[in-house]
Amino acid sequence: MGYITIKDLNFSYNRKQNVLNNINVEINKGDWVAVLGHNGSGKSTLAKALVGLIEPQSGTITIDGLELTEESAYDIRKKIGIVFQNPDNQFVGVTVRDDIAFGMENLQVAREEMIERILFYADKVQMKNFLDKEPSQLSGGQKQRVAIAGILAMKTDIIIFDEATSMLDPSAREELMSYIKSLHDEGLTIIMITHDINEALLADKLLILKEGEVFAQDDSRKLMRHKHLFVESHLELPVALDVANELKDKKYDLIKETLWAYVSMK
Q1: Given strand 205-210, what is the order of strands in its sheet?
Q2: 20-27: strand order across its sheet
Q3: pLDDT tens for residues 176-203?
Q4: Rounded Cα gap, residues 9 and 59, in angstroms
Q5: DSSP string spanning 23-74?
Q6: pTM
């Protein structure tokens, strides 16, 4: 059994047509998994199910040996946090300091320890000088860093990023992706919901959803070599990978590996 195990999961908003259909996935501790799929494929719904925001019609989610139920949801949320697409939807505090403290207050963290964690994690995401700022005074990238600090301060072992870069400018997006990589390097389990192939290339593994079902899942480098999987999922490979996949002849191996190395560094 994986660190996160999703078994036979089904969910429907209207009780007629499943948004998630027979989802079976295992994620190991320390994995970085990118969840790809076209609009409406079920990516964000899966993220909500993992943190207990929606209740599936059938199937189970088990995290670190504990099955997610109404009774266990509180304990599960000590292990897993989520950063949403729009950081404004996550801000609940009047200031950055208040917002980072919010999750810890729900976990009844002692005040002295809470103060220490606020300072430590605000510094970790380079927001220590903004603790008394109001949300309206922050950029989109800064708001996302505050949201991440709030999750880190809760000391969760798993972080889900649900399209967390989609509203950011290129500079802020690159900065956030670099920070996600550093979190993974520290041993956190990362689940990244995205439609951006270039971001997905940084992950260890890919999970492709299509029309609410698992269409493919494997190591990212293995799946990226099969163009048809992305075409059939209405996803587009980066040009460099597209070219690499077209170079079938062995005499082009050096060029292919050079292209793969280039893309992997992005």
Answers
A1: 80-83, 158-162, 189-193, 32-36, 205-210, 213-219
A2: 20-27, 4-11, 58-63, 66-67
A3: 788 888 889 999 999 999 888 888 888 9
A4: 4
A5: EEEEE-TT-EEEEE--TTSSHHHHHHHHTTSS--SEEEEEETTEE--TTTHH
A6: 0.84
